[in-house]
Amino acid sequence: MTTDAAESLDDAAFRRELADLLQNELPRDIAERNIQGFHQTREDVSRWQKILNKRGWGAVMWPTEFGGTGWPIRRQHEFEEACFLAGAPPQHFQNLRLVAPVVQTFGTEEQRQRFLPPMLTGDEFWAQGFSEPNAGSDLVSMRTAAVREGNAGYVINGQKLWTSDAHYCDWLILLAKTNFEGKPQRGISMFAVRLDAPGVTVRAVPGIDGAHSLNEVFLENVRVGVEDLIGEENAGWDYAKFLLAYERANTAEIPRLKRGVARIKKLAGRPRPGGQAALASEPSFPSRLAEIEIDLMALQATVWRTIDEEEGGEGSATTPSVLKIRGSELLQRINLLQAEALGEYALPFYPAPKYREGPLPGPDYAAGVMADLLYRRASTIFGGSNEIQRNLIARSVIGR
Ligand SMILES: Cc1cc2nc3c(=O)[nH]c(=O)nc-3n(C[C@H](O)[C@H](O)[C@H](O)COP(=O)(O)OP(=O)(O)OC[C@H]3O[C@@H](n4cnc5c(N)ncnc54)[C@H](O)[C@@H]3O)c2cc1C
């Protein structure tokens, strides 16, 4: 048997097991909620994480030494896409893709033992505490400060903003200034902070989608131990850059885009309220849909090419920025076309209703479209705004 044949047999077994998992173990209620596109809940993400972990698939992107699968990147993508399209909630991004790589690379052995297993079992969740009221794109101008108090640890004071999911998370991965002198990049440190620690207050920031996913986090004389410092003091900026590269590399969101296109096709054939004909009957619709599909195919091809380059050890520094820009803009076009296909039926779902607690305010196929459209206006902002990504590309290409 050739190596290729052996590998494809492996692939066939993998696909059979994956299909079995999704058919028999993905809870239907979770899938129904997720397909509508509302924010996922801690309960759903935790339940799904536990199911995956039982199969040994709790963190397919981690190396085996930390309980991952060590799969090639292509298989990781195939796995994540199949799960998402079947309706599984995305696994917790901050846990598995942001904090874990930092802890695995820069954390102490004690921190790895302490933080990684509860991520695998879905028992602890992390929020990302980087942005502040006057420090978003210009993150180094943050004001939150951590002052060392001998061997006792650090005392932290400050405020974080836009902290996604902090209201249901256990930990905050926090950037704070530990030195206000010299180059700002060299005076930042990274900490693990319990969100239920004395002095931490989490307050909701209502989203344009009417949902609660965003927060501001106030830190008043919050004490952390020296064992909660990640890596070296004043080297936090290097770890943050490492983490942000992971964040951007995953923002093409191909599965979400594919599901979005499939939903446009389903919605476009339905008549709209007020006597408006179905979107599919408009002469311009086929070409508008085709443009989106072609752009999606081009983006998918770029993702595959990037994976091949990364596996060959030749990853480009600007590719994550390209993926971030193209993926986020395409997502917004897809969301708009979905809403257009619904016409006024999109409106009853604004703001996002507590749709699990009573009858739906409109036709069930319209649920989630408007809330998702509004939330994803932010996709060109979070993870480093698209303007900043364009600056990075320009600097790399023209050297300024
Ligand atoms: C939905 C959502 C979720 C988020 N989740 C988190 C989270 O979990 N944790 C976290 O830490 N942060 C989070 N953020 C914050 C996010 O990272 C910041 O909003 C983002 O970095 C932009 O910072 P800012 O909002 O301060 O805007 P600013 O930096 O003030 O930018 C305002 C505008 O100016 C433009 N701009 C700024 N500088 C330049 C420049 N040099 N050149 C050209 N244009 C420029 C920007 O592109 C933007 O259009 C989230 C934000 C949103 C909207």
Give the strand tally: 8
Strand order of the largest sheet: 1-4-5-8
Average predicted confidence as pLDDT? 91
Principal-axes geometry comes out as globular
User: How big is the Rg?
Assistant: 22 Å
Classify the helix fraction into a percent range. Answer: 40-55%
Strand count, sense and closure of the main sheet? Answer: 4 strands, mixed
Strand portion: 5-15%
Unreliable runs: 1-7
Which structural category fits the helices and strands?
Answer: alpha+beta
The set of bound ligands, ions and cofactors reads: flavin-adenine dinucleotide
> Termini, distance in Å?
53 Å
* Count of helical regions: 12
Order of helices and strands: HHHHHHEEEEEEEEHHHHHH
Salient structural properties:
4-stranded antiparallel beta sheet, 8 strands, binds flavin-adenine dinucleotide, alpha+beta, globular, disordered N terminus, 4-stranded mixed beta sheet, single chain, 400 residues
Describe it for me?
There is one protein chain. The chain is built from twelve helices and eight strands. The chain has helices at residues 3-24, 28-36, 42-54, 73-86, 93-106, 109-120, 236-249, 254-268, 285-311, 319-342, 369-375, 386-398, and strands at 126-129, 145-148, 154-161, 171-177, 188-194, 200-205, 214-224, 229-230. The strands form two sheets. A four-stranded mixed β-sheet has the order 1-4-5-8. The chain has a four-stranded antiparallel β-sheet with strand order 2-3-7-6, with no helix packed on it. Strand 2 (145-148) and strand 3 form a beta hairpin. Residues 128-131, 136-138, 162-164, 214, 378, 381-382, 384-385, 387-388, 391 line the site of flavin-adenine dinucleotide.
